[in-house]
Amino acid sequence: MNREDYRKAFDELSFSADFQERTADLLQQRARELEKERSNMTISKTKKMAVLIAACIALLAVSVSAAYMWLTPAQVAEEHDQPLLAEAFQGPDAIEINETVESGDFSITLLGLVTGRNLDVLNQDLEKDHTYSVLALRRL
Prior knowledge:
Blueprint: H1 3-12, H2 19-69, H3 73-79, H4 83-90, E1 95-103, E2 106-115, E3 131-139
Antiparallel strand pairs: 1-2, 2-3
Helix pairs in contact: 3-4
């Protein structure tokens, strides 16, 4: 169908008397609906932002509480059924370091050191000439 045929066919269509008024009303109604959608979207964006901020605050709180929940070197020794080593890590000869180094894809934290020199090594797998350390390893 060429352009002229299309124009003739369109001109031959008969419209009702109130066509223009109904069309204007429909356009106004649609404009009001779009305005409502925009305001709903704005409220939705505000709610999303509030939820995002709340999630960030919760993550921060969990991170801070997780830092308090890290095991001390003595607790690590207790977890591995080494009560003498746990006592040594609590003693005055233990060295707390808490230094972190990143190597490749890992973060390595040296939590503490203690020597086996002053340990009573009977009935345990500890040796007097070793230095015992507790490391925390985390994948980045």
